[in-house]
Structures are given as C-alpha cells and as structure tokens.
Amino acid sequence: MRGFRRGLKIAAIGLALVAAPVAAGNKLIPAGQPVAVAKSVLTVTPSVEWNRLSARPGRNSESWTFDGDALNDLTFYGGIEPEKTLFREVSKRNKPLPRIKATMLVTDIPTLVENSYRIALDTPLFTVEGMEPMAFAGKPGIRFTYSFTRPNEDLPRKGEGRGAMIDGKLYLITFEAPRLHYFDSGVAAFRQVADSAKL
Amino acid sequence: MAAWMIAAALAGAALGTGASDRLAPLPPYGAAYTPTTVDERGLWQQADEAERDLRDSPAVVRDAGLNGYLGKVLCRSVGEDRCRGVRIYVVRAPYFNAFMAPNGMMIVWTGALLRLRDEAELASVLGHEFGHFEMRHGLKTFRRGRTITDIIAWTGVLSPYSTLPVSLVQLHFAYNRAQETEADLLGLRYLAAAGYRSYAASRIWERLMAEEDATALGRKRRVTHRYAAGFFASHPTELTRATYLREAAGAEGERGDEARDTFLTAMKPWRAGFLADQIKLNDFGGSEFLLGELAGGQWTPELLMTRGELYRERGNPRDLVSAAQFYQQAIDSGCTDPIAWRGLGLSLLRGQQEAAGRAALKIYLEKAPQANDRAAMAMLIGEGGVQ
C-alpha cells in the first residue's frame, strides 16, 4: 500500500514537471486582502497589487515584484531559525554563508544581510548606510538602509530592510531596486507592506 | 588515424607560430606600440575593450596616492623605460590575485595588498605580472589554445569514437604552467636587479599555502597539500613555486632591500578597509590566520579590534567572550577608533552582561556623536526608540 501511494506521488510529481511551463507559479497578489507570506505566520496586507515570484530565495522566504526582481524586489524572510542561513547556500564547503544566532541583537541583522550578500553575490561593494529603531509587527525592531552593486554590472542599487528577532527567529522584509528611478518609485509601496506586517 | 593528423597539425602550428613571432621584434611596452599580427591585434582589441569597462567600474580604487605608489614600485622593479607601457588598476576584491592583460593593463586586487608584507614582496608580484606582458604570454596561449582546440574539434568530427590522446590535453595545461614559471623567474631577476631582497618571492607562496590550509580547517574540509600540479592546473602548485623561487634566489636571496616601512606607510590609510572586507567573507579560519600573520606576535590596537569584529560576527557564545577581550585589549593598548567601544558593548550585551555592555555603548556614542547607527545604539542602551 505504502509503495503504491509513493508510486502515485512520484507519478504526480512527474506529471507536474512535464506539464509545468517555465514561469509557472508566479501569482498576482490582490490589493487590500491579508495574505500569509514566506510559509510562515507572518501576514501582510498590501494596498496595491504585487506579483509573487515562484522562485524562493530560501525555504522560509518569498519574493514579490512589480516589474521583475531585477528592477524591484520585495523579499520576506519568515522566521529563519537559529543556525540557518538567510537564503539558500550555494556551497557549504567553499562559500559558506553566515548563520543566524538566537542571541542576535536587532543591530546584528544589517551585518548578517551585508555579509550574506557579499558572499552570495561575490561583491565587496555593499554598504550599510544607516539604521534606526522601528517596530516590526508590534515588536522592537530595526529599519536599515543599504546600497550595493552586483559584480559585472555597474548599476548602483539601493535597499531598505525592516526586521526583528522574535523568539530567537529572524523576521525580515527587504526591498531593493536600482537607485535610478525604481527605488524611489517602489519604496512607498514596500513601506506600506512592511507597516502592515502582523504575526 | 588521429595520431598522424595531430602530429601534422602540431607541426603546422609550430611553423606558423615561429613565422609570426619573427614579425614582432619590438617590445610590447614600447611607446605607441602597434600590434603587428592579426592575432595580436585581435587580442589587444579585446583587452582594450575590457580595459574601457574596468576603467569605469565602481570596483576600481582610484586614489592617486595608492596608484602612484604602485607605479613607483613597478618602475623601480622593471625599469623606467619598461614601466611606462603599463596601467595599473587596483580592484577592490578581498582575495590574493593579480593579473596582466596583453595590452599592458595590470590588475592588482586589494586582497593581495593586504597579504603582502613589504615592498620587496609587492615588487615581486608586479614584476611577475610584467613578465607575462613582456614575454607576450597572452598571445602565445591564445595561439596554442586555438591550435589545440582546433585539433580536438577536428578529431571529434572525423573519428567520433577515437579518444583524444591524453598527452595533447596535458600539453595544453602544462604550457600554461611553464609560462607561469617563466614569469616567476623573470620577476625574480627584476627583483634582484632592482636591489630588492629576492627571498620575498618565495615567502609569499609559503604564507598563501598556510592560509589556504587554515581556511580549509575552519570550514571542516580536508587539508590537501598539493605537492604536484593537477592535470588541469593552469599554475604550478604554491609549494613548487616557493621551492624553485627559493632555490633560484640562492645565497644572495637574503641580501637586499625590503623597504618594509615605506610599504606600511603607503598601506596605512587602506589597511582598515581591506581588513573589514576580509572579515566579512565568513572565512573564520583563513581570517584568523591572516590576522596572526599580520600581527607577527605584536598585536596592534587595529588588529585586535578587527579580531574582535571577526569573533563577534561569528557569534558563538565563546566567541562573544573572546571578542569582548580583544576589544578591551585594543582599548587598553591605545585604540582610538569608537568602533572598539561599539563592538565591546554589543559583545557584552549578547553575552548577557547588560550593565557593562550599556556602559561601553554610551562611551561609543560620546566618541561618535554623528554615527549613522546612533538611534539604534541608543535604543539598546535604553534611551528612546522602540523597546
């Protein structure tokens, strides 16, 4: 019986793989409705429509965009547990990412983001511009701003993050976009989403 | 069947190479040098385009003082007439590397500048790279590579089941290794002629080997000492290089100028930034080894503070205790950078020593009233913000 069910499951996965078009799973997020994000208890209520990308940066994360993630990228990290990495690790042996610690202070969140980006993108051009306290889902949290450049791409990008350590887990929402036009045009919508975060 | 074809093609290639080499007698570093053959023109065009891209890249460090110093060392090393054909670009990248394009564009990574100890070592790296340029290695590799890949392609088409002779592939990679050795030895001659201490060249490779081992251990990887270059290796092993450079330097190797103080003065404004880039790589073993090497038994306040940052960012409970000790030692030995108090405060707070942690953060805010994380730190102290 178990073997048969497993067989069915494999067949179903196989069918899904065959039938799935390349960009399947991208989904419109309607405005004005609460939606649970990043496979977690984190809920937000966007006031404008967003597109959810099917590709996730990691197990407990999710990305939204208006025009594609190269132009505006809103990413939720929903309760990343201690000893896990911020996003998927490409090579644990050669390019290990820093791990979240339960004792992290909110002021350590920008450093974690910075070091993870530097390693994953292979760029030393990442600067945390500033940070200040700001509540996240009603808990003590932090707001920080950063700028970075991907290698082989001279386009300066700006980013803003809002996060908190809640019960030893990391909750974080980031928004990043090219400094030219896209950051300024999208950041208000991001701030509204971050303000609406509830646990 | 494949064997005679390869032999014929190689013979043809050898003739071709010989003939075109005779057409390029002028040194490539000469004023307004114009590439002579089709291959060389193509290669220079590609390199020129890459250089235009690099020139505008935000990764290039454009400081006139630093670039001027590197230029001066190159000129002392290879001679005034030769060095004028070279443009040096310092690229912000926290690993040991330097390379040379066939058109005279030399690239030095900041990670290399952090790892070098004195001017003699810098001169040996610059001289080695210049050697590639002077010997036209880029052009030779290009021709050789094209011939061999042509042969590989043709044997594949004509006899799809024949396996390519292993020796042919080996020849391709061994050729690159021979060029590296040639540039190493030419660099060594420049070093000696310029009056630098020529043991410098072998010491670099010995330290790099040890750092690689430390990185591997830190990442719980097996340490693999490579005593022989792998089949596909483009460079000789560090051990081979250290050995033949030490032998070639001979008894004279210990003599000569190191110019350590000049080097350290030129690097002083940059060290903190280079160190910060290094410790953000999450390479605990390698960074810890490198800091120990740079300290050489004498831990300066700057190195102690960086060591504190390294331990605090890894953040295991025991690391936080060590980090607090390093920051405290930095402060006790005369550190003036407010970051030391910030690090001390944050390590103590994470280690549940709240009163002491808050006291240290207070000093940080007094010393750095304009800090861009002021409000966040004030929140941790309990002065305002969302708690």
What's the topology here?
The complex is a heterodimer of chains A (199) and B (387).
Chain A: H1 2-19, E1 27-29, E2 35-36, E3 43-44, E4 50-52, E5 61-65, E6 73-80, H2 109-121, E7 126-133, E8 142-148, E9 157-166, E10 169-178, H3 182-195
Antiparallel strand pairs in A: 1-4, 2-3, 4-5, 5-6, 6-10, 7-8, 8-9, 9-10
Chain B: H1 2-22, H2 38-55, E1 60-61, H3 64-78, H4 80-83, E2 87-91, E3 98-100, E4 105-109, H5 110-115, H6 119-134, H7 137-158, H8 166-193, H9 200-218, H10 238-249, H11 260-279, H12 284-295, H13 301-314, H14 317-332, H15 339-350, H16 354-367, H17 374-381
Parallel strand pairs in B: 2-4
Antiparallel strand pairs in B: 1-2, 3-4
Describe the structure.
- The complex is a heterodimer of chains A (199) and B (387).
- Chain A has 199 residues and is of the alpha+beta class.
- Chain A has one domain (25-195): Mog1/PsbP, alpha/beta/alpha sandwich (Protein Transport Mog1p, Chain A, 3-Layer(aba) Sandwich).
- Chain A is 23% helix and 29% strand.
- Chain A has helices spanning 2-19, 109-121, 182-195, and strands at residues 27-29, 35-36, 43-44, 50-52, 61-65, 73-80, 126-133, 142-148, 157-166, 169-178.
- An 8-stranded antiparallel sheet of chain A has the order 1-4-5-6-10-9-8-7. A two-stranded antiparallel sheet of chain A has the order 2-3.
- In chain A, strand 9 (157-166) and strand 10 form a beta hairpin.
- Chain A is globular, with a radius of gyration of 18 Å.
- Chain A starts with a helix and ends with a helix.
- Chain B has 387 residues and is mainly alpha-helical.
- Chain B has helices at residues 2-22, 38-55, 64-78, 80-83, 110-115, 119-134, 137-158, 166-193, 200-218, 238-249, 260-279, 284-295, 301-314, 317-332, 339-350, 354-367, 374-381, and strands at residues 60-61, 87-91, 98-100, 105-109.
- Chain B starts with a helix and ends in a 6-residue tail after the last helix.
- Helix content of chain B is 66%, strand content 4%.
- In chain B, strands 1-2-4-3 form a 4-stranded mixed sheet, with helices on both faces.
- In chain B, helix 6 crosses helix 9 and helix 8 (166-193) packs across helix 10.
- Residues 1-24 and 156-165 of chain B have low confidence and may be disordered.
- Chain B has 2 domains: 2-254, no CATH class; 299-381, Alpha Horseshoe (Serine Threonine Protein Phosphatase 5, Tetratricopeptide repeat).
- The interface between A and B is medium-sized, with 35 and 35 residues.
